[in-house]
């Protein structure tokens, strides 16, 4: 279920937005923001990878000058991302947020998104799906059910490996 509204109590560095846009974005509602400041937003999701590098990605809703919010995806390496839904007048539904996780593209995304796709991407010879269930950790204060949804999806995905082996 989507929240009634975003509280914009979090912040994002304007420099992170500049890295993605090439300059201060003209859509930014905070007209006073400069590269050395942070601007208000709502952090929607945190994605952490239990890898050697311990990578992390975040999905934010940043106030748009025309109202609503712009969906922004960042990571700890300054990668460029293109979410499937750039702007929304209303808070995202859980389905829309899942689409952002599954369909975001960019140089910091796995083929197939920024969430579960990392499990698929790391499925190589000698690694079982069960070993990859905990590779991705998705959390959200705004969408509390998202973590359980992702965990359920991962467990089901791992169980399908056994089903395929039994059929073969």
Description of the molecule:
A hairpin with a 6-residue loop joins strand 2 (38-49) and strand 3. Helices cover 30% and strands 24% of the residues. The chain has helices at residues 14-21, 94-103, 117-121, 129-132, 145-167, and strands at 10-13, 38-49, 56-63, 69-75, 81-82, 87-88, 105-106, 136-139. It starts with 9 loop residues before the first strand and ends with a helix. The strands form 2 sheets. Strands 1, 2, 3, 4, 6 and 8 form a 6-stranded antiparallel sheet that branches. A two-stranded antiparallel ribbon has the order 5-7. The chain is of the alpha+beta class and 168 residues long.
Task: Set down the secondary structure blueprint.
Blueprint: E1 10-13, H1 14-21, E2 38-49, E3 56-63, E4 69-75, E5 81-82, E6 87-88, H2 94-103, E7 105-106, H3 117-121, H4 129-132, E8 136-139, H5 145-167
Antiparallel strand pairs: 1-2, 2-3, 2-8, 3-4, 4-6, 5-7
